[in-house]
Amino acid sequence: FNTGDVILDYKDEPRGIYVIIFGTVQCFRKSSNADVYIDQMNIAETFGELWLLTDMPSTVKFVAANPSKIRVIDRTTFNEFLDKDGTIARKVYKRFTNRLLKRLLTPQHDIKKSKVS
After folding, report:
1. pLDDT (tens digit, 9 = 90+) per residue, 56-98?
2. Rounded to two decimals, what is the model's pTM?
């Protein structure tokens, strides 16, 4: 992917789990018809698993921040891995949970949360 290429767009069905081989990927959410920066991911990080696990289209847009190579583990292969090996499933869930907790517990999240309340 070249800089600025959309890898996974809003409402897209993910093809699988996206693994960043090299490069940087930024993610955005839609707010009042504008893209709002959420986070940035780097080499060896993954995305797309949330929507695979919930069978929902993406509510986030992922964009290459610089030239990037992304490997996709397709849905069928991913599900077979999870079904056959509990160790892989546990690692996927643990990594995803840690990433989610990190984002939820950042001061930036607390500021946004207090403004919404």
Report:
1. 778 889 999 999 999 999 988 888 888 887 887 788 778 777 7
2. 0.75
Query: In terms of Cα–Cα distance, which of 5, 18, 7 is closest to 75?
Result: 18
Find residue 28's DSSP bridge partners.
37, 61
**3 state SS of 43:** coil
Could you give the CA distance from residue 2 to residue 95 in angstroms, rounded to a whole number?
27
Strands (E), the chain: 6-8, 16-22, 25-31, 34-41, 46-47, 60-64, 69-74
Greater confidence, 114 or 18?
Answer: 18
pLDDT digits (tens, 9 = 90+) for 88-102: 778 877 877 777 777
Question: How many residues would you count in the chain?
Answer: 117
Nearest 5°: phi and psi at 2?
A: -90, 165
Please count the other Cβ atoms lying within 10 Å of the Cβ belonging to residue 22: 12
44: Cβ–Cβ under 8 A, 6 or more apart, which residues?
19, 20
